[in-house]
Amino acid sequence: MAESEAAAEDLDAFIDDLDYLPGHFHLEMQLNFEPRSPASLRARDLKLQREGLRQELELAAAPQRPAVRHLLGAFAFYLEELDEARERFLEVASEDPGNLNAWANLAHVYGRLGQEEEEEACAGQLASLMGLAGDRGAAADPQLRAARCLAEQGYAHGFDVGCASPEERARVLEAGIALYDKALGYAQQIPMEEKRGWYFTMATLFIRLDGIFLELGSEEQKRLPAFNRTLALLQQVLKSSDPQPRALAWCYLGMLLERKDTFSTTPMGVHDCGFSGTDSLDCFGKAIEIAKDQLPILNRLAKIFHFLGKQDMAIGTCNMALDVLRDPELNWQAYCTRAKIHIRAYLHDLERGKLGLGGMPDRNHLACAKADLEEVVKVCPGLKTYLDIGQVYYYMGVDAVQELLAVDEAALNQALVFLAKAGESELGATLPELQLLRGKCLRIKGEEANAAACFKRAVELDDAGCSHAEGFGCLLEALLAQWSQAQLSDGEVGREVDVWLRRAQDKYPAARLRQELQRVWRAHTDEVLGLARALVAQGRPALVRLLFETMERKGEGASSLRDRRAFSV
């Protein structure tokens, strides 16, 4: 026993002395920690992230593909798809027998499978490649292997799953950047074009980190060093011979030049990198010019422009992509992105109309989105397409003022058909937005009990810390409707409200929950007052207390809600 303990201590000391440790399963990412969410929701998040990674693999340059495959293998491992995980890591080892992460990850998988001989063989191969087994010849180019090992680990931090707060996401991104910095310390033999790929990924992590700092209201002195460094990284990527990172670098540079106005004075990096007279629109224009006949780049740019709220630019880029290839089976991305742009434009105008900040939304947006999505759903139907077209049909079926009246029963039924198809998949059944939309359709059709069941499921499926509390607000409205129609007694509605209010308080931020209560209060004042009296009479004051708190903050809450909706795109 004493000998084994001493051996374990020697191994720990040896590992501590290493400058880096290959493999992905020891990284300080939420992916590797004990899950906070139920297994079904954790699996949902992993599968959604995996779908995005599979698209990344199709677009990735050759030097970056091992990093993507490692992550796909790690996700498969945590989804208990051990054979798939093993195959992913074997792919990397087969293409590059000197890849350190491949052998470390394979050893981990074989250990989980209980295949001790294979595990030891992989560990031995790893030790040999690192020069730890006394075979210095096998450890040729150790600096190059170490650099790629660390860069692959840094890449993984951009795709973590399970972060519960902005601060947590920021820590993960900072850890990924630190790994890239360490990789650059070993990167003397790395080809410059490959290194520029690292610079691009680092810039992406820095931009996301800056977005979090802005969200948290961080002081500009905290943001400034990283902002300046991102500019310097993008300056290097602009020299790439690969048009994809070069085009995206111009796009990201445009984003940063727009953000420079969030500082009290122009960041010095703008001048140091020679961007003093550069306009953000010129940057976006150069990105489009580089991508003009290259479909994957155009589709990526369209998504970025859509995310940035530059909808006219996004529509134009989608149209360019469709001019290159109109076949919806081969270019479904352009059709789907253009449809999403029209949906968002409609929702933006609808929310402004509800707040009295604009007129009726243009329903032509829905017609355009429907036309695009129907092209796709004919030839390559899938979960997201079903969900998007279901959303379009829902809004075609309800009034464009308050979403309270059915104006097209057939459209509502068609929405439910598409949502049912989306729910047939294992993944679709775990999406809260699907349940929310189903509940809204059923509520408009007068099926309050069925609608309430959907809204309950939406609340259950929301992640803890989620800011989308609409499912709870809709549930409260459905319960109010059932109670006012005498479908629920005072006691029944009291118990339901108590149970689901406690769940909502455990799940949503307090400020967001108050905003949702305020929305329900404004829309159903008489019913809420009646419910409050009934709850007090039953000795259930939780909702009433929260309503009082909400009313006390009404001015502040209404202002923040109005601002958020007015500027959403």
Automatic annotation (TrEMBL):
Transmembrane segments: none annotated. It comes from the Eukaryota. Gene3D superfamilies: Tetratricopeptide repeat domain. It holds the Pfam family TPR_8. PANTHER family: TETRATRICOPEPTIDE REPEAT PROTEIN 22. This is Tetratricopeptide repeat domain 22. It comes from Capra hircus. The lineage of its organism: Eukaryota, Metazoa, Chordata, Craniata, Vertebrata.
